[in-house]
Amino acid sequence: MKKFTTFLTGTAAVLALGAASAQAERGSDGHLNILYWQAVSILNPFLSGGTKDVEGASMVIEPLAKYDEAGNMVPALVDEIPTVENGGVSEDLKSITWKITEGLLWSDGTPFTANDVAFTAEYCMHPDGGCQQIAKFTDVESVEVVDDLTVKVNFSVPKPFPYGPFVGAESPIIQKAQFENCTGPRAPECTEQNFGPHGTGAFRVTEFRANDVVSFEANPHFRDAAKPAFATATLKGGGDAASAARSILETGEFDYAWNLQVEPEILNQMAAAGRGVVVSSFGTSVERLELNWTDPSPDKGAIRSTIEAGPHPFLSDPAVRKALSISIDRELLVEAGYGASGQATCNILPAPELYASTAVNWCLEYDVEEANRLLDEAGWERGGDGIRAKDGVRLSILYQTSTNSVRQATQALVKDMWQQIGIETELRNIDAAVFFGGDPASPDTFQKFYADVEMYTNNFPGTDPERYMAGWLCSDIPSPANGWLGANMPRFCSEEYDALVGQMAETAELEARGELAKKMNDILSNEGALIPLIHRGDVSAHSVTLEGVRMNSWDSELWNVADWTRAQ
Amino acid sequence: MLNYTLRRLMFAVPTLLVISFIIFALLDLAPNDPTGNLPLTIPPEVREQIRQTLGLGEPFHIRYLYWLNQFFINEPLNIIERIFGIEIGNSSERLRIRSWATRSPVVDLIIERMPQTLWVVGMSYVVGILIAIPVGIISAYKQYSWFDQIGTFVSMVGFSVPTFFTGVVLIVIFSVQLQWFPSIYDTTLKVTDWSSFWAQVRQMVLPVTVLALYNAAQLSRFVRASMLDNLNQDYVRTARAKGMKERVVLLIHVLRNSLIPVVTVIALGIPTIFSGAIITEQIFRVNGLGQLLIIAIQGADIPLVQTLTFIFAVLIVLFNLIADLVYGILDPRIRYE
């Protein structure tokens, strides 16, 4: 993975250099055709957190700093990233001061100032606005305008990682003059603004058709007079991933297509036509099996799948958890469903490098014999039907996930693998909108977890895992008391783990934070709170004539669209 | 006839109210959540807030009444204002039905989608009819000839092979291999001169072909059956005995009588033009009303789904009435008094 990223970065850098020399003036390369098969609904990421909407908007509005393809912060609208060393972050870690680059203009020609930044915070933090990126502003006490080009964010608690607000595609700056009358409950009513925000990005909107297509033209006030190379651009939506891949790789009608989660076999076949290139990058997404540590049996009634229901009849046995993990041939799962976009993993926190543990790899070894031995040793004996049981408890698993062809194929393979160690599996799939919907009245949500094992992918925005790792705190277990909210699906609870989370919240030094994160990862994986399966990458494709693409999993894939050029 | 029309129209009002209630209740009770498709990185507390701002905190009957008010009073007023350029009351304060995904008024979205749906789906319906009628006539007149056999075979294929298959086959042949036609429909294309007209024709060819084949297959069977019914009637023998030319017998006497049931079938099919062709629109990215509906369903954009399905319901009720009336006009033997 590391090698792969380095390789990718290297190639991208060469491409970028080549592009810089080839490119002479703004708008000289004609038209750029981008395809997002999930159509863009709105260009205001504060009102829609969907990835397609956030990325579509990233062509127009920008944050103060972005993440590059290696996960490093790069300045966008500021001169440098504030740190404790350069005095930008206060010693007590309770404030961060951003210095805006001089002379920046909005796409309507007015100057970009600190007032716009402060207004953006006010817009998102309005209690009645329903801002979908409010998590980016966690613990923000106030955002003050020091002078026209300086803005200071004050936090209510020390923030070892103060780069939540205004960093990354989910937290861009909107123009005060345009959105002034759109705060709070009026936010959704400003259709014109939400469909055509003024921005500082490389392009500006000329026409917006919701759930269909967005037309752009080069922003005449963009900070780099030579960019973007394309005069106009289209962001088309609709259809499905496979046909999106076809339009790049086979018909060549489009230049860039996003999120091509297609069976690797089909994708490779299309790529053979030679019209386009498949690119991938890896962020923090891990497809995992979460094991229910509590008893989900229906006869527990209202307390099923809660701590009160007591421990799980067989998943509470560490031998069973370990056997389940090592009896899965992860390489086979990758080959069948993911191809270049997946890597077998034993870690729940596989990236960024600083936080990624390398200590756990026992599960990568696919070993049915060892799994069988573990179960035999623990006293789980095969019955007449080949299924193991102990004291009347049969190893029979209900395994649920969301409806999705790759997931169902994975389920079928895993069922087969578990069959070989004498474990019976019943498969179930639930529509994604219901499964992830979190409706407390529905019995089928992933939070309620009325099953033994469930599978899905999760990740975290940006590069700091603190909040993500805090999701396995004892206090984060979903239960009727907290309305089934909470990220601790396995109902895992360990004092040691909780202590590490507390320690991380007080540690500012990056290396030390990395060490803590690794320890937490190792506990989760070794204890078998969950079974990490596949480190999932993002797959996109671009035409061979498009240069400058630096595939990015940490920010919008279109983060450097200003640097894209047409090959001569 | 007028009496009958009025009676039917009055009866349509309670029917539509019941339909609107069923649609609203069904979608409301269905286990679905507008925040379900958001990335998991958005925490559950924020999701709860989002649901509140979408108005999901209100009880069911209040939301239903709001929706009825918006659909039957506010939106028609807006359309009237738009058409006549006038302002009725305080129009900027009037609540509109807003889509949850785009936050824009649902009616505006629907109006934006109309042109491409009417062009592609409507055109395919017209082409389908133009193919079906002659094929049906010849097939019936020369029953069991090679033309009839081939016609039967082709319509069987057209009827039974799903559009998602024919669509992809056509793309693979004409877009990937031959590169004659684009596989992606450009909704922003404006026809201003011959070259843009040609581009419009080229991008319509594949989706229209797929749908026209399907429509023609269905209709040609109707025409054929109806022609066969009439060809054996006594009045045909009389016409021939009078010394009418075969062409006159066929095209004037038989065809006119045979078209009566066909016209009803065509009228009943018109609402399906408006509901778009969900699958074909997805394949060719025509992004018309069908695609709007499917995206709304996937994203649990309930106000949009409710409004669209209800508009389809209104069209179906309306065209049922029209079909009945047309039948009465075409066939004077039928009286509704």
Name the features.
heterodimer; A: 568 residues; alpha+beta; D-Maltodextrin-Binding Protein, domain 2; Dipeptide-binding Protein, domain 3; three-stranded antiparallel sheet; 15 helices; B: 337 residues; mainly alpha; MetI-like fold; 12 helices; 74% helix
What does this entry look like structurally?
- The complex is a heterodimer of chains A (568) and B (337).
- By secondary structure, chain A is an alpha+beta fold.
- Chain A is 26% helix and 20% strand.
- Chain A has helices at residues 2-22, 51-57, 114-125, 176-179, 191-195, 241-249, 264-271, 318-326, 330-337, 368-377, 405-419, 432-435, 466-469, 495-505, 510-527; strands at 31-36, 65-67, 73-75, 95-99, 140-147, 150-155, 203-209, 213-218, 232-237, 256-257, 276-291, 342-344, 381-382, 388-390, 393-394, 396-402, 424-430, 453-458, 530-543, 546-547, 565-566.
- Chain A is globular, with a radius of gyration of 25 Å.
- Chain B has 337 residues and is mainly α.
- In chain B, helix 6 (163-177) packs antiparallel against helix 7 and helix 8 runs antiparallel to helix 9 (246-274).
- The longest helix of chain B is centred in the middle third of the chain and has 38 residues, at 194-231.
- Chain B is globular, with a radius of gyration of 24 Å.
- The termini of chain B are close together.
- At the A-B interface, helix 5, strand 9, helix 6, helix 12 and strand 18 of A face helix 2, helix 4, helix 6, helix 10 and helix 11 of B.
